[in-house]
């Protein structure tokens, strides 16, 4: 061990979380309809597999893009050679236009303020390197994505201080929760450098309200700190509640060219909205030139391949395709979300009302043996090993209330989701039956005790009467 660095030998990666442990169990025994029908169904992976046919149809109709051709002439050699880490201009222009389309064209983006990264993981870590020093802190609302403990902290040395949100108001961010988190950081002698939020939220599946966004901007303005808005699920909003980007709120005249203007940064990715996590395309958007310059230099450690940029620039430049994709993908997400909600309701399991994402925030507190996180882990293990579903326990997301779980619905077929709902219903029914039997036994025992007590009273009164005689 002495031959290794402290980073190589430390255990701060976060890989020992139950979030990742569930994945490991799934990989040992993955469900397959034919080969392994009793295996574990993966409901812990936020992937969007509902619209691959739209991608494949476009690829079939655009052979130049897939064949790395321009006007039927091969550009393979051009793409195979070294590229500047600033990214291909055609791709960056196409990406910012797609980002605007996702946001209803209520805000526009300047491609010069965009930095390409190898996925959102790289984007968030790069911003940590740019905005904070080791030992300084960012505030994050709970519950939050378990991977942030790895992405934000492991290599940067940055600390996370939770903003405690609760079910009492639907896990919404409040001014008091922000102030309490800030005070907690000060009590720990941590300098707070900013707040990071996911909008829409992972794992809650809700988009932040305009009130919350204004609250966040007022808070960072008062504290003189940064705000990062991770908006990688912005295109997954599937109902009328809609989505408001932090950049839209920032366009308010009181913020334009104010100090806050340069302290708000956005993370984006094509992993969720376009369903292409394997392509590793992420981005940082910032109005701060120093952040843009520094992040661009850092991006050389995690570039997006030129071939990927060329292919996706052609796809995203096809406005007919992007418009149809956004509409159809949202429609499919809404239908699949409704299918999960119906299945859980049939099993007597409620969910937080949500309008976005590839998952639901599920309340199984009534299935706990006690209102503790130990009981939550007991329930989670039963669901993984006995029921055969990998879901994410709320404790892995730093939820302050035991009994909440994240369940993903967009990474499987309808048939597989239907099977998952059958499994969870059978399990919930078995617990309900067991609880009923236990209650009946308790009731029976009480009745027996009452009868015994009544007989004792009768005998006692009879004895008293005999004594009186």
Automatic annotation (TrEMBL):
Pathway(s) it belongs to: Alkene biosynthesis; ethylene biosynthesis via S-adenosyl-L-methionine; ethylene from S-adenosyl-L-methionine: step 1/2
Catalytic reaction annotation: S-adenosyl-L-methionine = 1-aminocyclopropane-1-carboxylate + S-methyl-5'-thioadenosine + H(+)
Top-rank EC class of the record's enzyme: lyase
Domain annotation Aminotransferase class I/classII large: ranges: 41-424
A family per Pfam: Aminotran_1_2
Keywords: Ethylene biosynthesis, Fruit ripening, Lyase, Pyridoxal phosphate, S-adenosyl-L-methionine
Entry GO MF terms: 1-aminocyclopropane-1-carboxylate synthase activity; pyridoxal phosphate binding; transaminase activity
CDD domains given in the database record: AAT_like
Cofactor: pyridoxal 5'-phosphate
Alphabetical GO biological process terms: ethylene biosynthetic process; fruit ripening
EC number: 4.4.1.14
Family per similarity comment: Belongs to the class-I pyridoxal-phosphate-dependent aminotransferase family.
Name the record gives this protein: 1-aminocyclopropane-1-carboxylate synthase
